[in-house]
Amino acid sequence: MNFLSRFLTRLFWSGVTLLGTAVLVFFLINVMPGDVARIIAGPKATPVVLAEIHHSYHLDEPIWKRLGFYLDQLAHGDLGHSYVTDQSVTQAILTRLPVTASLAATAVVMWLLVAVPLGVLTAKYRGRWFDRGVLVGATFSLSLPAFWLARMLQYGLAYKLGWFPVAGFRGFTSLLLPGITLAFLFVGYYARLIHTNMVEVLDSPYVRGARARGASEATVLFRHALPNALIPVVTVLGMDVAGLLGGVLFTENVFALPGIGTLAVQSVFNLDVPMIMGTVLLSATLVVSANLAVDILYRWIDPRIKAGY
Amino acid sequence: MSDASVEIGLSVAESASPDRRAVPEMFRSRLILTGSGIILLFAVLALAAPLLTQWHILREPLLQNLNGLDAEGMPLSPSGRYLLGTDNLGRDVLSRLVYGARVSLAVGIAAMLTATCIGLTIGLLSGFYGGKLDMGLMRFTDMNLSIPSILLAIAFAGLMDGKILHLHPAWLHWRFLDLKLQRGMVSVFLIIGFVSWTGMVRVIRGQVLSIKERDFVHASRALGASNARLIFRHLLPNVIPTVIVLAAMNTANTIMLEAGLGYLGVGVPPPAPTWGSMIADGQAYFISAPMIVIAPGVAIVLTVLAFNLLGQGLQEVLDPNRAR
After folding, report:
1. Over the stretch A86-107, which tens digit does the pLDDT of each residue have?
2. Which domains are delineated in chain A?
3. Which of residues 237-296 of A touch B (CB under 8 A)?
């Protein structure tokens, strides 16, 4: 099977997955009881008003017909309008996406900058106290609740020491502490991942060959071993987009950043069904396209796959 | 390296039941001992909490007490009377922490069992039958994997809360709290269970795919064993060690989700003391009484850490192929 047909198959299945997710979530969210007209009109609305809203939002139609309306809307690139603010969902998401995206990017850069050296050094000093200490620290970092860590760092580093803005969004500096929070949550896992891959790679013949030729330790570790140890990290990064979005949700809320996470939580509080659908579909799209991108990048990063080894 | 894998291959092929040598090994693993020690401590405290209250060792967790507030109505700092201080309603933080362990462990473990049942069933069916069923189930899993579990959970939990609001006028809300506490626990663990089964499916499926090509399965099939017999007698016992490892790790996950839902105010409803909601309610008082926020956070970290350590330890003993 050549590259193009493989790519098209993957693309097709990604589309099917997304469509399926949309249908699944639509049913689950709309089957949950709760009168949407009341959410829109408020608790004191008269039956006449409620009936009118039911009609104009197609709420009196059977659910499969409403699904049809929704999918038709989606096909036109329209996610509908918020029940609470009547704002276009697409618009709301597009204005907030840059904040979330830059927060995520900041965090990924931060944790890789720490995790790569930690992973390499623990692989080199395998079994020593340094390695064990990092292992304990990594498990600890996996066990931190995002919202609590965010509060603690906010109190310590922003409020007490005044190194960072406490909350709100005023440019890049506002993303630093939320980024550090997220980096804390993921750095341990990635340090271990790189460690495991490095240990494997360091055992391989070409590394022994490089050592035998008298290459310096730094050259062996960073030029010969690290690039190959980093390949699996790309896959995990692609799969971690969902987990990252989960962390972003809490971090944004604690630091009051106007991103997708705060939008999602707010719309849940407002019982704003179209907005909830929008944020859920956005994250599904991000995750699916990240996986697709990894699949394509992989062949380019690791030529052994293309060659069929 | 090759010797070890041969040995493992033999031990699985020879016996259809998990390796019995694993049991003494467990008692030597420091990871398992530390993890289960912490879990046991929390579990005993959680179970004994009503007794401790009866014996006046622990205060009533729901009791709102004016003595628990200072002259300005602010929460008290830790002292001999209130070891971890009080919260904004004058309730004893230590007592709420211990009662919070009941909610966390009960919801976390029930959710883990729900998730394990779903994940194991899908993984076994998908791997064993293959073909169209496999494709359909794996697509279904992909769909669930594509949404962050916490986002899905808050969407459902939040909307579910709406239903209750519509049954009674908002100002009557508190009268039905007793009833809702029960319902809340059940709905919350079901929601968490339904969003956290995906991680298990691929691992189980992969194992089933390799086990079903082993000689002892082929032999059994040749002797006329039914599909049900193959699944329950040969495949299930061989994936159980992996399931135990994944379940322990998943409990860390479900407890974290429960805390997250509690923090966002869509978990088990108040006045039930949950660690997540304690942090959410206490954060406004962080500067004057930091213990309200620190204590439940430490409790979450310790519990989640304990299940992670237990999972890692079990993996080293039961599933050395996949352990690092």
Report:
1. 788 888 899 999 999 999 999 9
2. 3-75 (no CATH), 89-301 (1.10.3720.10)
3. 242-243, 245-246, 249-250, 253, 264-265, 268-269, 271, 273, 276, 279-280, 283-284, 287-288
